[in-house]
C-alpha cells in the first residue's frame, strides 16, 4: 500500500497541473469507455495530445462542459449514446438466485461497488456503482445486468456542487 501511495505521489509530481485538474473533473470510475484504461490516462491525452473532451460516458455533458471551461475551448457534442440531454444513470444489478460467488465481478469492478465472498451471493452497493458495465462480461452465469435508476423524491441526492450559492455580507443584512 505504501509503495502504491509513493508511486501515486511521484506520478502527481510529474503530471502537469492542468492534467491534474482535468483528472479531478473526471468521475474516477476507471471504466475505459473513453478508450483509455482509466481516468488519468484520458486526462493526460486531453491535456497533452489534444484528445476530444467529449468521450467520458459516465460524466456525460456535465463533465464535458467543465473540461471545456477549464481548457477554454468550445463545448463539443457528446460522443455516441451520451447525446441524450439528461443521461440516465445505470446501475449493475445481480440476480442473487443465479450468483455462484465466483468473485469475477468483484475483481472487475474499478470502484469496489460489489461485495460478497467466495461461493457466496454477491450484491451491488448502489451508492458506489458507476454503471460502467465492466462487471457484466466476466460473469460466467450472466446474472448481472445494467438497469436504469429511476429517481424518485425518496431516492434523489442533491449534487451540492451545482446549487448556486450567494454570499451576502453581514453589513447588508442589518
Describe the structure.
One of its GO terms (molecular function) is 4 iron, 4 sulfur cluster binding. Residues 10-73 form the 4Fe-4S domain. It holds the Pfam family Fer4_21. This protein is 31% helix and 8% strand. The protein is α+β, with helices and mostly antiparallel strands. The protein has 2 domains: 2-83, no CATH class; 88-149, Alpha-Beta Plaits (2-Layer Sandwich), CATH 3.30.70. The longest helix is centred in the first third of the chain and has 13 residues, at 2-14. It is globular, with a radius of gyration of 19 Å.
SSE string, helices as H and strands as E: HHHHEHEEEH
Tell me the number of structural domains: 2
Structural class: alpha+beta
Q: Provide the gyration radius in Å.
A: 19 Å
Question: Main beta sheet, described?
Answer: 2 strands, antiparallel
Taking pLDDT < 50 over at least 5 consecutive residues as the criterion, the unreliable ranges are 1-14, 81-86
In the sheet with the most strands, the strands line up as 1-4
Amino acid at each position: 500500500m505504501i509503495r502504491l501511495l509513493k508511486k501515486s505521489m511521484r506520478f502527481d509530481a510529474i503530471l502537469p497541473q492542468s492534467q491534474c485538474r482535468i483528472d479531478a473533473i473526471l468521475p474516477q470510475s476507471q471504466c475505459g469507455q473513453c478508450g483509455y484504461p482509466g481516468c488519468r490516462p484520458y486526462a493526460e491525452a486531453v491535456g497533452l495530445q489534444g484528445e476530444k473532451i467529449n468521450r467520458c460516458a459516465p460524466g456525460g455533458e456535465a463533465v464535458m462542459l467543465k473540461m471545456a471551461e477549464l481548457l477554454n475551448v468550445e463545448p463539443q457534442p457528446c460522443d455516441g449514446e451520451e447525446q441524450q440531454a439528461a443521461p440516465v444513470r445505470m446501475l449493475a444489478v445481480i440476480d442473487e438466485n443465479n450468483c455462484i460467488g465466483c468473485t469475477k465481478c468483484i475483481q472487475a469492478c474499478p470502484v469496489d461497488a460489489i461485495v460478497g465472498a467466495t461461493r457466496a451471493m454477491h450484491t451491488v452497493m448502489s451508492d458506489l456503482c458507476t454503471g460502467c458495465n465492466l462487471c457484466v462480461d466476466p460473469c460466467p452465469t450472466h446474472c448481472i445486468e445494467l438497469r436504469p435508476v429511476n429517481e424518485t423524491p425518496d431516492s434523489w441526492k442533491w449534487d451540492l456542487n451545482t446549487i448556486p450559492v450567494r454570499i451576502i455580507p453581514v453589513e447588508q443584512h442589518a
